[in-house]
UniProtKB/TrEMBL annotation, chain A:
Pfam families: BPD_transp_1
Transport as UniProt keyword: yes
Residue ranges constituting the ABC transmembrane type-1 domain according to the UniProt record: 191-386
Subcellular location field: Cell membrane
Transmembrane annotation, as ranges: 21-40, 60-79, 88-112, 124-141, 153-177, 197-216, 228-252, 258-282, 337-357, 369-390
Main location: membrane
Protein name: ABC transporter permease
Any one Gene Ontology BP term: transmembrane transport
Topology term for the membrane: Multi-pass membrane protein
Family the UniProt entry places it in: Belongs to the binding-protein-dependent transport system permease family.
Keywords, ordered alphabetically: Membrane, Transmembrane, Transmembrane helix, Transport
GO cellular component terms, A-Z: plasma membrane
TrEMBL record, chain B:
Keyword Membrane: yes
Signal peptide coordinates: none
One GO CC term, this protein: plasma membrane
Protein's name according to its UniProt entry: Osmoprotectant uptake system permease
Highest taxon, organism lineage: Bacteria
GO biological process per UniProt: glycine betaine transport; transmembrane transport
Keywords assigned by UniProt, alphabetized: Membrane, Transmembrane, Transmembrane helix, Transport
């Protein structure tokens, strides 16, 4: 008998199935949000601030009742959760998500006056809240059902496809779609530029970071100094670093013609890339260094005993064992770079941040969303993708 | 035991070594110097930007901007610390354990949400001004604190808690006198991450109409005046370094307290 058993411990409240409080409260939150906040907003044109509309006006009686039933259904199923109920809940959550653009179509049919071609439909607070809580439900269900990361990602991709189809064919009145249609070429090239900046910065810093980590392993004295410098760099705010790079680079471009011809200038891609690489180095170097150092000496000793040469030991034993932690560093770096690249738009590097800052400047909130939502999605996709890769590469048995 | 643990929580220890305070004092002095007598460096900025009509940012005094910056970061920090630590404690108690997997998962998402995107999403809901930046900072700063609170509380060994239980401590006493003091270094590290990031992120507030140290930078970028940018960037960098080195000292003090007791 252990010590814990000997002590009086309070008895568990319900044996077996007790309500999943998390999902029940989420269901209540969504119901409250749906009835309290504005579901959609309607504006006669781009400049005027929209007027909010509640659930009844947006969907009509039958629609509002249907949504209420669906949301309540989540709470009811979660009251007596079994494995089957959790599966049904997953289906319900995905179904509601897929149904969301249909709701917007309904409200654009109900609210938008066909006489006003400029009229546009904004997505209200209730919509965002319900979407956010549904995503939380998905995370909770993934944990309860013990699914791997890949399943919710696939389901969300399916949902995204449905949204895309709806947006392309039936949601012409939605403000977000109108903003996109007004500058679709610009949007696509911004996405391209964003991805280009992130991938260049991350790949350069992987190479530099690996080299630096190797050097640190060889010359112990370098380690302390290098980490101090990198930590210092990480403390400097991104906006400040972007700003501080402007002056010296502009000076270099003006006074060293060779560099100017190479495309170095105070404003634009070069300072952005330098700052991005500077920020990306710390997580990469830190994780690479820890990853290479944490490989157990016993394993290396065994490899040596098997007659492996130093090079073989590194490439066939140390590196594969270090790979998951190393990839973790790449994941953190890439996610961080996706966000920082948005700030780089301020110094003329392009990318999706352009839409955010232009939209903020013109007080056009839908344009801000057009920039912010893809950045958010990109960060989540990178996070999920590289996380799944690191999980898959983990040597068997250590999970 | 009780007195010892209480001692270890008090920050000002009589036997601190002076060099610990060297860095924060130095950065702090540089920061104060830069916000009060920036105009003394006019020749330097004139050299950076010889053609500009004006090289010292004078629309608002730098120390006013510094105060506003600290105000925004401070409010966000107080709220996030209270909410984050409370949430971390709540989900590790028996009655809140239903929420533990979800909260742990969310906290591990950590910095996945880019601050610019969070800020941009806060503006349509809250309008322009100081409010959206405070809310964005709260949302953004919450996750590191929750993550570290969870890690700290879960890192306390079960044997220690069992021993405390066996000594007749109530769950409340265990939390206050055993778990929290043991988790304090990890929680403090989370607070440090959160506050340092928020100092940097708050500067972005200048793009949504909140007046703070980001102002000179944005105005300099817009007008092509590098001297403004340098002044704003320098001040923010010094502020970040001051606060970061302060936390460094706090962490070291906490550590020495534990090794001493």
């Amino acid at each position: 008998m252990t010590l814990m058993d000997a002590l009086p411990t309070p008895r568990l409240r319900w044996e077996g199935r007790h309500p999943n409080i998390v999902l029940v409260s989420f269901s209540c939150i969504m119901l409250a949000a749906f009835w309290v906040f504005d579901v959609v907003s309607m504006a006669p044109n781009r400049i005027v601030l929209g007027t909010g509309h509640g659930a009844l006006e947006a969907f009509g009686w039958p629609g509002a009742l249907l949504v209420t039933l669906l949301l309540a259904c989540i709470g009811i199923l979660a009251w007596q959760p079994s494995h089957r109920h959790y599966r049904a809940l997953l289906a319900a959550v995905v179904f509601i998500m897929a149904l969301m653009p249909v709701g917007l179509m309904a409200s654009s049919y109900l609210l938008i006056d066909p006489e006003l071609p400029q009229a546009r439909l904004g997505i209200g607070a209730a919509y965002w809240l319900v979407l956010f809580v549904l995503l939380l439900c998905l995370v909770e269900l993934r944990l309860r059902l013990n699914l791997t990361r890949i399943w919710p990602t696939l389901l969300l991709c399916g949902v995204a496809l449905v949204w895309w189809l709806c947006a392309a064919f039936g949601l012409g009145a939605l403000a977000l779609v109108q903003e996109f249609r007004a500058r679709d070429q610009q949007f696509l090239s911004a996405v391209g530029q964003h991805i280009k900046l992130v991938s260049i910065a991350v790949s350069v810093s992987i190479v530099l970071g690996l080299a630096l980590a190797m050097l640190m392993r060889r010359y112990a004295r370098l380690q302390k100094g290098a980490f101090a410098v990198l930590n210092f760099l990480q403390t400097i705010p991104s906006l400040a670093l972007f700003g501080l790079l402007l002056a010296p680079l502009a000076w270099l471009a003006a006074n060293v013609p060779f560099l100017g011809q190479l495309g170095v200038s105070g404003i634009g891609t070069t300072p952005a890339l330098i700052a991005l690489i500077a920020y990306s180095l710390l997580p990469i170097v830190r994780n690479t260094y820890t990853a290479l150092e944490q490989v157990s000496p016993d394993t290396l000793e065994a490899a040596k005993g098997m007659g492996m040469r130093a090079g073989q030991r590194f490439w066939q034993v140390r590196l594969p064992l270090a790979l998951p932690v190393l990839l973790e560093g790449v994941r953190i770096t890439t996610v961080q770079a996706v966000g920082l690249t948005a700030v780089a738009a301020l110094i003329g590097a392009g990318g999706l941040g352009t839409f955010i800052f232009q939209g903020l400047g013109q007080a056009a909130m839908d344009m801000v969303l057009l920039g912010a939502l893809p950045i958010l999605m990109m960060a989540l996709v990178v996070d999920a993708g590289l996380g799944a890769l690191a999980e898959a590469l983990r040597p068997g048995g250590t999970r | 035991m009780e007195t010892r643990v209480n001692n270890s929580l008090s920050v000002a220890q009589p036997h601190t070594k002076a060099p610990q305070w060297l860095w924060p004092l130095m950065w702090g002095a540089l920061l104060l110097g830069s916000v009060t007598v920036m105009s003394a460096a006019e020749p330097l900025f004139r050299w950076i930007e010889p053609d500009a009509r004006q090289v010292i940012y004078e629309r608002t005094e730098l120390y006013v901007l510094l105060g506003r910056h600290l105000f925004v970061v401070g409010i966000a920090a107080v709220v996030t610390i209270i909410v984050g630590v409370a949430a971390g404690i709540a989900v590790t108690r028996r009655w809140g354990s239903d929420f533990l997997p979800l909260v742990a998962q969310l906290a591990s998402l950590g910095q996945t949400f880019p601050p610019v995107a969070v800020l941009a999403l806060a503006v349509p809901v809250l309008g322009f001004g100081t409010l959206p930046i405070i809310v964005a900072l709260m949302l953004y700063g919450l996750l590191p604190i929750v993550r570290n609170t969870l890690a700290g509380l879960q890192g306390v060994e079960d044997d220690i808690k069992t021993a405390a239980h066996a000594m007749g401590m109530t769950p409340r006493q265990i939390l206050r006198q055993v778990e929290l003091p043991l988790a304090a270094p990890v929680i403090l590290a989370g607070i440090r991450t959160s506050v340092t990031i928020n100092i940097a992120t708050a500067a972005l507030g200048a793009t949504v109409g909140a007046s703070n140290l980001g102002d000179p930078i944005i105005s300099g970028i817009v007008n092509g005046n590098m001297a403004y940018v340098a002044q704003g960037a320098l001040t923010i960098a010094l502020l970040a370094l001051t606060i970061d080195s302060l936390f460094e000292v706090l962490q070291r003090q906490l550590r020495t307290c534990f090794s001493a007791s």
